[in-house]
Design goal:
Length: 123
Amino acid sequence: MSDEKDERRPAGELEATVMAALWAAGDPQTPGEVQVSLGVGLARTTVTTILTRLHDKGVVDRRRQGRGYAYFPVQDAQGLTARRMHTELDRDGDRETVLARFVAQLSPDDERVLRDLLESGEG
């Protein structure tokens, strides 16, 4: 029996790695192209599964290319982070308390940036 199970990485880590490859590529990538760019020994089927899950989550989109698909991110890294923050906020019924605790933990610089964004109407 091999140590393959010990070498497995969490799905979130794999998804982040695949997303980084898509952002770095700058144009739609097939699972095979992503696999080559990762260079970490993942099977093409594993990369395809990760891309399909990301598509199901609405994080990437795809277009037909040959018999398969080429995938591309629907947002940049910062947009995806903001989306995740909204998702977490939506999970709790007491938004005001969650936001208050979030703001209370901001660094002075982050607090200044947030104030500036809110005052300028960009937030």
